[in-house]
Inverse folding.
């Protein structure tokens, strides 16, 4: 530096070691065009020897026409004659040298698999940070696009790329290219539609070659998602296609700012030109295909399905779990089979039968796949046993001084007998009406307030196969905590605290409860005519992007938990909900039966009761929850009371001894005691007695 004395650095020595290691082959892979192979070497190679096509040979009669070293100096791209999709080839290399003129080992070999044409998906390329222009030419004229340098490459399983990030404004200043091959189902004239924000264009080839693609529809501004029919330019002319033939298809989109998406739909031969958006169907993966490198595809089954036994008219749930990887994703797909035949729409890791029938007993298995590769699970047996037991009362509930009682059964019951008020009595009041909001619960409307000491007697209620209950009596109990899940604008339900979807914490009512994530956006009020009352009309989604775990702070101890799930306006769920790890709800709704009421006996040990989605659930929706502190067990053996009227003996015991089972025998000492059906769910049973002695005891 000027004004400072000069100085010298410390001397150092550079030692150059002679390269004595020849190059080796490290990779070889094909391409979608099926006429190139990229060969990777362990080091930079000599251009002259590496670009000598005679130094390479391929099995299967494929010839190498030319060889070009790429910019890395370690990769060589071979141009070949046509390869056959999905076929494994052996590459043999001789004479290629490194910069020290050391050649590869004689007859060095690598195998690779030609890219496989695989149905089910298209490829989406994203070009980020290319400016705020909104014309398609702002994409196609950008250097990134021209030099094919996408920032990300993913798979789409329909010609549909919704809002990035899941909500507006999403990603800005990008361009997108979606491409693949269309395989129409039948011969005839097809009409195509495109919708996007911002601009887009749709091209279709007259055959499978991208070189013959022509623009058939455009969007030069922006429209709403799935708004296919706003402008004439969005709709193609009728295009005659052959069923089963491959046609190259491509959609380009350019986004400036704000909302963003691109989606492509069609109408099929014989359908009219769409005049509204509902007439257009988004093109799904079953009509699309692309190429994958099978050498990058792998799939395994991490959990096999197991033999399963259920009782008739109960849910049957079969599960499998797979892991996989392929060029664009780690997602796997599933397909279930019954007795070797594909089950329509059984394409999830879980296959559920809502009400298993005797005819559902069969052999089941599942294919687990990634594009190009499939493994098949173990074949298992589903056994469905005949239902021979009458329904039991799980509990009867009411809030203090309310004019209703809910009776919860342990299985689905016949609606006609379950809503026949002649089959019930509630002490101290008269029943005026009975409704069944779900297959397991019946709400009894009464003419006055229900007292804390009330009991309900039930008889004659049948299950779905006709098994009929004998008379039982159970006490009416009130919940310790009652929470209704609802939107903030819905009317409050008397006796229930509202949950509006807030994050877990101290609420204004003094209780501490809530969700693991903000769920206020996923509360609903349906105002549906088929809701039995407001509790069944309000819901919170548990699997739609908000919270999936709900908790309430309560003292440690034993509890019975009663909850209702479903939706009066939809039946698109597989309802499976855990309480403290115990499956409380397990049901698949139908048009006729859209709700399920469930119960679980649980123990809280961490100061919080936890409710979450059980494995195999889909689109869970929760309506309300009631929590009952378990009764204090009797300090000594419970005492029975008896009364005889005619040939009917009524035996009772204290309510705190509910859970004990009444047993009988004809002789003492007895080697065999017979259970009195349904006695463990009540504290009073009436039995018919005959001549001779009969002895009874309570046992737990």
């Amino acid at each position: 530096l000027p004004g400072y004395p000069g100085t010298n650095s410390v001397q150092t020595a550079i030692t150059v070691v002679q390269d004595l290691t020849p190059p080796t082959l490290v990779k070889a892979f094909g391409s979608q065009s099926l006429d190139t192979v990229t060969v990777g070497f362990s080091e930079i190679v000599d251009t002259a020897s590496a670009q000598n096509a005679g130094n390479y040979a391929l099995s299967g009669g494929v010839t190498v026409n030319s060889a070009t070293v790429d910019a890395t100096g370690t990769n060589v791209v071979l141009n070949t004659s046509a390869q056959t999709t999905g076929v494994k080839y052996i590459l043999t290399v001789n004479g290629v040298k490194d910069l020290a003129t050391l050649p590869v080992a004689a007859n060095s070999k690598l195998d690779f698999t030609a890219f496989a044409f695989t149905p089910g998906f298209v490829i989406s390329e994203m070009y980020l940070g290319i400016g705020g222009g909104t014309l398609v030419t702002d994409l196609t004229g950008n250097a990134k696009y021209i030099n094919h340098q996408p920032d990300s490459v993913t798979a789409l399983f329909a010609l549909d790329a919704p809002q990035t990030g899941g909500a507006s404004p999403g990603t800005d200043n990008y361009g997108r290219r979606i491409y693949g091959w269309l395989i129409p189902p039948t011969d005839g004239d097809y009409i195509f539609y495109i919708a996007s924000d911002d601009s887009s264009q749709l091209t279709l080839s007259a055959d499978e070659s991208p070189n013959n693609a022509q623009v058939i529809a455009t969007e030069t501004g922006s429209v709403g998602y799935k708004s296919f029919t706003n402008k004439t330019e969005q709709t193609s002319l009728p295009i005659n296609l052959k069923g089963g033939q491959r046609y190259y298809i491509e959609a380009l989109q350019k986004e400036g700012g704000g909302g963003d998406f691109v989606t492509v739909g069609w109408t099929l031969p014989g359908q009219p030109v769409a005049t509204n958006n509902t007439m257009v169907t988004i093109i799904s993966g079953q009509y699309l295909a692309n190429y994958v490198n099978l050498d990058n595809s792998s799939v395994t089954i991490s959990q096999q399905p197991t033999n399963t036994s259920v009782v008739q008219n109960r849910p049957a749930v079969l599960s499998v779990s797979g892991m996989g990887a392929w060029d664009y994703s780690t997602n796997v797909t599933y397909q279930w089979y019954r007795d070797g035949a594909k089950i329509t729409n059984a394409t999830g890791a879980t296959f559920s039968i809502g009400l298993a029938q005797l005819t559902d007993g069969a052999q089941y298995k599942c294919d687990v796949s990634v594009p190009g590769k499939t493994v098949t699970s173990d074949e298992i047996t589903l056994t469905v046993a005949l239902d021979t037991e009458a329904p039991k009362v799980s509990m009867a509930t009411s809030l203090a001084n309310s004019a209703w009682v809910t009776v919860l059964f342990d299985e689905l019951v016949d609606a006609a007998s379950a809503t026949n008020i002649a089959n019930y009595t509630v002490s101290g009041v008269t029943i005026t009406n009975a409704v069944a909001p779900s297959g397991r619960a019946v709400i009894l409307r009464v003419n006055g307030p229900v007292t804390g000491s009330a009991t309900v007697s039930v008889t004659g209620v049948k299950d779905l196969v006709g098994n009929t209950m004998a008379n039982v009596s159970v006490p009416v109990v009130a919940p310790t905590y009652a929470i209704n899940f609802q939107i903030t604008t819905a009317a409050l339900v008397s006796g229930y605290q509202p949950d509006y979807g807030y994050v877990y914490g101290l609420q204004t009512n003094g209780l501490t409860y809530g969700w693991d994530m903000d769920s206020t956006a996923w509360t609903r009020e349906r105002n549906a005519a088929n809701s039995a009352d407001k509790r069944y009309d309000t819901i919170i989604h548990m699997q739609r992007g908000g919270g999936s775990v709900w908790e309430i702070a309560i003292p440690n101890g034993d509890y019975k938990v009663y909850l209702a799930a479903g939706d009066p306006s939809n039946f698109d769920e597989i309802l499976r909900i855990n309480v403290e790890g115990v499956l409380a709800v397990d049901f698949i709704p139908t048009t006729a039966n859209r709700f399920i009421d469930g119960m679980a006996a649980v123990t809280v040990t961490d100061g919080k009761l936890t409710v979450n989605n059980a494995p195999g659930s889909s689109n869970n929706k929760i309506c309300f929850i009631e929590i009952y502190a378990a009764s204090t067990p009797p300090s000594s053996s419970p005492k029975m009371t008896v009364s005889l009227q005619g040939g009917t003996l009524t035996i009772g015991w204290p309510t705190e001894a509910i859970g004990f089972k009444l047993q009988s025998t004809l002789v003492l000492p007895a080697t065999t005691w017979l259970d009195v059906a349904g006695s463990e769910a009540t504290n009073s049973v009436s039995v018919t007695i005959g001549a001779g002695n009969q002895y009874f005891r309570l046992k737990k």
